[in-house]
């Protein structure tokens, strides 16, 4: 089994997000059950968020599990693409619940448009655009500052606090993601990602209650 052939740090990278994946897999059905009781559109938006979170955790675990350099390169692209999907997927329920049409569809189109463009860049690039994609992640993540007025007005204080807290966790974690020379920096990044994902999971829950 590949896991036992990995270096210790890489084992931790696999373990952190694999555990996060299975915890999310257990919690997601409860969130979806409540979401679909509100409306089909609302439930569908929460489903998009849930799938994007699971996709990110699964692709990250699979990437770090690889030993073959070629396989690792392929799964790394998938791992990075999943981040675009996670950001867009996280925005989806908040925009769906709290932004009125037609602005709602404009924002969703903008967010998913960037995600698909980022996916194309990641899929076809040779790795030279890594820092550009990192900047794109942060820009997408903090677009809430520009499009968040209806979310701020309609989401309860606790929900908005968890939403911002998640963004802070992801942003601080990015510092460790970029510190390649620091031992276990990527493991630390993974923990910040888990905290960010948990915070946004709770924030989505507050959309529904």
Automatic annotation (TrEMBL):
Coiled coil: none annotated. One of its GO terms (cellular component) is plasma membrane. It is found in: Cell membrane. Keywords: Cell membrane, Membrane, Metal-binding, Transmembrane, Transmembrane helix, Zinc. InterPro entries: AdipoR/HlyIII-related (IPR004254), Hy-lIII (IPR005744). The chain crosses the membrane at residues 12-32, 38-57, 78-99, 105-124, 131-148, 160-179, 186-206. Pfam families: HlyIII. It is a multi-pass membrane protein. It comes from the Bacteria. GO terms for molecular function: metal ion binding; pore-forming activity. Zn(2+) binds at residues 64, 186, 190. Belongs to the UPF0073 (Hly-III) family. This is Hemolysin III. It comes from Sediminitomix flava.
């Amino acid at each position: 089994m590949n896991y036992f052939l990995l270096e210790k740090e890489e084992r931790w990278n696999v373990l952190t997000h694999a555990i996060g994946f299975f915890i999310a897999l257990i919690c997601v059905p409860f969130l979806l059950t409540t979401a679909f009781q509100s409306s089909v559109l609302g439930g569908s938006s929460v489903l998009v968020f849930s799938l994007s979170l699971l996709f990110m955790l699964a692709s990250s675990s699979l990437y770090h599990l690889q030993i073959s350099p070629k396989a690792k390169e392929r799964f790394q692209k998938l791992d990075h693409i999943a981040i675009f999907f996670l950001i867009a997927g996280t925005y989806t329920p908040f925009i769906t619940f709290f932004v009125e049409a037609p602005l709602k569809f404009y924002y969703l189109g903008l967010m998913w448009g960037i995600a698909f463009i980022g996916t194309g860049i990641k899929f076809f690039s040779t790795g030279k655009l890594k820092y550009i994609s990192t900047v794109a992640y942060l820009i997408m993540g903090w677009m809430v500052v520009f499009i968040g007025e209806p979310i701020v007005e309609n989401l309860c204080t606790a929900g908005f606090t968890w939403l911002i807290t998640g963004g802070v966790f992801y942003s601080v974690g990015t510092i460790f993601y970029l510190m390649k020379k620091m031992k276990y920096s990527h493991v630390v990044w993974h923990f910040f990602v888990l905290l960010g994902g948990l915070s946004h999971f709770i924030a989505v829950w507050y959309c529904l209650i």
